[in-house]
Structure formats: C-alpha cells, structure tokens
Amino acid sequence: MVNVNDNVLIIGASGDIGRKIVQELANDGYSLLLHYHKNKAKIKELANSLPPEAILGVYQANLTSKQEIQNMLDQVVYPVHSIIFVSGLADNNLFQETTEEMMDYMLSLHVKAPWKITQHFLQPMIRKQYGKIIFITSIWGEVGASNEVIYSSVKGAQNSFVKALAKEVGPSGVLVNGISPGFINTKMNRHLTKKDISDIVSEIPLNRIGLPKDVANAVSFLMSEKASYIQGDIIKVTGGW
After folding, report:
1. 63 pLDDT band (50/70/90 cuts)?
2. 55: CB partners within 8 A, 6+ apart
3. Domain with 49 in it
4. What is the CATH number of the domain that holds 89?
5. How does pLDDT run across 19-51, given as a tens digit for each residue?
6. Of 59, 130, 151, 229, which one is the catalytic site residue?
7. Global confidence as pTM
8. Average pLDDT of the residues in 39-68
9. pLDDT, tens digit, for every residue of 102-143?
10. Distance between the two ends of the chain, CA-based, in angstroms?
C-alpha cells in the first residue's frame, strides 16, 4: 500500500523508460515530481494524460550544468521521499576517438549530477528514517561493451554508488537499489539495423526485445513494501541475456 506522503522525484521523466515509470507509479498512487531536459512537449503531454493530483511539479534542467541543477533543486518545495534516476545518454564511439569534452559530459550526466541530487535530498530521508533511491543503470555497467566504453564506465560507477551508499544509509532506513536493463526497445537503440536487432534477440533466452514497461514493473516492485528487504542490489531486467 502506498504511503499517502510518498512524493517521488523522477529524473529523466520524458524518455521512453521514464514515461512508462511515471505512468506506472501514477497508477500505483504516488505523487510525482517530473524532471526533463529538452522534451518539453513530451513531458507536457505526459503530465496532461495523468490525473492532476498525481503531478506535484515539472522541472527543467540540463544535468551537465551545475547552475541548472541548483536552480531545479531550489524550485522543489515539496518533501522528496524517493528518487528514481532514469536520465542517460549512450556514446557509440571507439574509446580512442572519444574527446575529453564527451568524457566530462558523460561523467557529469551519469555520475556527478546524481551525486549532487542525492546529496541534496538524503539528509531529510535519514532524519525521517525513510526513503528510496533507485537507479536505472545498464547491462553494460556490469559486463562492458566495445564502442561504448565510456557509457559502460559511468553505468558501472552508478552500480558501485548504489552498493556503497546502500551500506552507508541502510541503518537509517533508506533503501538504495538499481535496475540493470538489457536490450530495451527505446530510441537509444534505434540506430541498430534489423540484422543487428535479430542477432541480439537470438541471444536472449526469452526471445524478445524488452519493453519500457518491463523496467517500469521492476521499479514498481522496488517501490513497494514487497521489496522492503532488498538493499544494495542491482536487479537485472534482461530476459536472461
């Protein structure tokens, strides 16, 4: 049963997985605060499709900008009981061709921004002995991928952050976990050819591409009381890939 005071901040709510998580949690009865970067039309459409009482606020911020992150944090006047980090960007490139600017961008987006946002809201969670933090990471954060070395690295950093922070704040009643999706049908994978997709699906025991709803279902579970004894874990949503 959802606590009536459960306000959930979703970082990256306008993406394919983010939107599905928003819809799932709205159906579960949570009150949502939605972050987006560029997709204003999509976030507006999403917010309008949900009951007005489900959305507490919508916030825009470029997560690679310290000032924009701080502006967003200053605008959030509601208590935040849970945070879900969905924002992400893949970089399909040979490592030796990756620029330092891209390295800095990927680190800021996937690692430093979540650090700063978590740090901002963590103390009230600890004080109240209640809170949930969930990261949507990636299978590449565990096994690595050629041509996605930087992306694999920052997703691995998210996994490590989940495991370490879970140990630190577990005694204070704050749950920290991650979800590691495999091959999910999102725009991040739309650069692949039909043959690329067919080859990947042939390696997935469940013999299908994952859907954003598969990830959203796992989030719904981790947010529920049924997951109250899961801590510092990275749950795979990969179809066995």
Report:
1. very high
2. 26, 31, 32, 33, 34, 47
3. 7-237
4. 3.40.50.720
5. 999 999 999 999 999 999 998 999 999 999 999
6. 151
7. 0.94
8. 95
9. 999 999 999 999 999 999 999 999 999 999 999 999 999 898
10. 32
Is the pLDDT score of 190 beyond 80? no
Is there a domain that residue 16 lies in? yes
Phi, psi of 136 (to 5 degrees): -90, 105
The total number of structural domains that make up the chain: 1
Annotate 155-213 with DSSP letters as a single string: HHHHHHHHHHHHHHHGGGTEEEEEEEE-SB-SGGGTTS-HHHHHHHHHT-TT-S-B-HH
Reply yes or no on whether 229 is catalytic.
no
In the block, tokens 């890939």 appear at 241
CB 206 within 8 A of CB 239: yes
Q: Is residue 2 part of a domain?
A: no
| DSSP-assigned letter for residue 108 | I
As a whole number of angstroms, the distance between CA 4 and CA 116 comes to 27
Assigned domain for 1 exists: no
How far apart, in whole angstroms, are the C-alpha atoms of residue 223 and residue 2? Answer: 9
In this structure, is residue 60 part of a structural domain? Answer: yes
∠ CA 160-58-80 to the nearest 5 degrees?
Answer: 50
Within 4-147, strands assigned E span 7-11, 31-36, 55-60, 82-85, 131-136
pLDDT above 80 (res 5): no
